[in-house]
Amino acid sequence: MVKSETTQLNTVFHALGDATRRQMLLELADGERTVGELAKPFEISLAAASKHIKVLEKAGLIRREVRWRTHVCHLEPAPLAGAHEWLGFYERFWTDRLDALERLLHKEDASQSPYDKEGDDP
């Protein structure tokens, strides 16, 4: 992986590491929101919301647009593709492991006689 891609991925995961920012992204998935609208569910100040938004902007996850005196935020999902790809490796890893476990358990069940199972009477 190229260093700039690694840096971008680190920035995205840092931004996603905070529950408030993840919820803000969820809100933005439904459409644009003002900074005030993003702050409201958390009962945080506009300054605190703005700090969270700056982290999301730095990660490239949102875009802020100024309309007169109102700051409107939009979701930019493209950086999530890199995170999804990175996590996909681990999804395949666990899926393969769980599939192997399932095969092993089926093989074990098939090798036991019906009366060997706990709780069954002959």
Automatic annotation (TrEMBL):
Coiled coil: none annotated. Residues 1-95 form the HTH arsR-type domain. Signal peptide: none annotated. SMART domains: HTH_ARSR. Pfam families: HTH_20. GO terms for molecular function: DNA-binding transcription factor activity. SUPFAM superfamilies: Winged helix' DNA-binding domain. InterPro entries: ArsR-like_HTH, HTH_ArsR_DNA-bd_dom, WH-like_DNA-bd_sf, WH_DNA-bd_sf. It comes from the Bacteria. This is ArsR family transcriptional regulator.
